[in-house]
Amino acid sequence: MALAQEDIEQIQWLIKKTMSETPEALNANVRYELDLRERTIRVEEELKHQRELMTEGFKQMEKRFEQVDKRFEQVDKRFEQMHQDMNKRFDQVDKRFEQVDKRFEQQHQEIMGLHHEIKLLMRWGFGTLLAVGGLIVALLRLTQYGHG
User: Fold this and answer.
1) How much of the chain is helix, strand and coil, in % rounded to 5?
2) Which of 66, 111, 133, 143 has its CA 20 to 30 A from that of 83?
3) pLDDT, tens digit (0-9, with 9 covering 90-100), for 103-148
4) How sure is the predictor about 63, in pLDDT bands with cuts at 50, 70 and 90?
């Protein structure tokens, strides 16, 4: 409960009036008590003012903390979005590697098929070479025995 300026002025006027009507010895004690009361009122008003300032400061800090919390929420959302984007990108990279692996497997199969065909051709070629060589040797021996 704060005193209005008019109340303070009225109290001061009453103090001055009382001081002017009392004898000197009583006047000193009354003046001292009135000074103490006036100081107490001022201290109480200043304390109230300080309390109001502190309350306002706490409200401002609370607002600031709320803003910081909102900013952290935005950062969290951004990190979550980045995480999801990275997961999608890694999934795409995995699919690409799977496609590359399939292509390598196809090429490996084709190379193994060619290798198999080359082995068959070499066997047939070697068999043909032996057969032709054997025929030539047989013909040469026949011709040699036939003339000799």
Assistant:
1) 95, 0, 5
2) 66
3) 999 999 999 999 999 999 999 999 999 999 999 999 998 888 766 5
4) very high
Residue 12 is predicted with a pLDDT of 83
CA distance between the termini of the chain: 151
pLDDT tens per residue across span 95-112 = 999 999 999 999 999 999
How far apart (Å, rounded) are the C-alpha atoms in residues 66 and 74? 12
The pLDDT confidence band at residue 27, using thresholds 50, 70 and 90, is: low
Phi/psi of residue 3, each to 5°?
-90, 140
- Provide the residue type at 69 as one letter: D
CB 57 within 8 A of CB 30: no
Q: What is the pLDDT of residue 29?
A: 72
Q: Distances from the Cα of 34 to the Cαs of 2, 9, 12, 65, in angstroms? A: 18, 13, 9, 46
- Alpha-carbon distance of 125 to 117, in angstroms, equals 12
Q: What span, in angstroms and rounded, lies between the C-alpha atoms of 146 and 148?
A: 6
Phi, psi (5° rounding) for residue 93? -65, -40
